[in-house]
Amino acid sequence: VDSDFNMEEIGGLNKLKSWLEMRTKFFTKNAREFGITPPKGILLTGISGCGKSSCVKAISQYWRLPLMRLDMTKVYGGTLGNPEETMRRVLQTIEAVAPVILWIEEIEKGVAGFAQGDAGVTARIFSSFLTWMQEKESLVFVAATANEINQLPPELLRKGRFDEIFFVDLPTENERQEIFKVHITKRKHDPATFKLDQLAKATNGFSGAEIEQVVASGMYSAFNEQRKFNDQDLYKEISRTVPLATTMSEQIKSIKR
User: Fold this and answer.
1) What are 184-238's pLDDT values in tens digits?
2) Beta bridge partners of 34
3) H-helix or E-strand containing 188?
4) Among residues 47, 64, 55, 49, which one has the least CA distance to residue 14?
5) pTM above 0.70, yes or no
6) What's the CA gap between 14 and 235, in Å, rounded?
7) Can you tell me the distance from the alpha carbon of 37 to that of 18, in angstroms, rounded to the nearest whole number?
8) How far apart are the C-alpha atoms of 85 and 93, rounded to whole Å?
9) Residues 139, 18: contact at Cβ < 8 Å?
């Protein structure tokens, strides 16, 4: 996967950033001499649209490692042959190109059959994948995302499979300011000409993806009227947007719990 994100484009998530920064020095010779083992991976769980996938791409840029995405539905679907044999080929291929970051999007969907007590192919594939995660010696950093962590079996979540589990919540007011700044800058405008603190207050409950869409859509009004892009364009879009936190408030409360 081509990675088009870097850490400067991620607003907030400081705990994740400091965790990654602490492990950056592993990629020097001194780390191996010191006896440090390679980082195994992380699981990013939380609310949809809050930057889990963007973070995985940013890790690839940050550590300067190639990024490969594993599509579990294709493995189980049998379109590439016997699912168990396909999974063996997948793991061999990944290890052959190590060091690498392995991205598994919405991992809970890949193990749904196992979680429901499927004693067939799904369970065997999942079992072999768990064993590989525990015993792999090559530098394959598994970065998985999950929207519904309660669907994942406990043996996947225990220490040793993933180094750490991070919960990605809706952005705070300060983080929303950062996100506005990132997206306005990315679209070649000066964030200093906007009242970011007021915009952050007006977008309480908005996810990062919703703020991005506010900026992207707001620019069309200014462009069509051939004038400067301003705060009012953004406020118009904010007033038209009903965030996921409102439309799916019960589900989001459940995820937070």
Assistant:
1) 999 999 999 999 999 999 999 999 999 999 999 999 989 999 999 999 999 999 9
2) none
3) none
4) 55
5) yes
6) 27
7) 19
8) 12
9) no
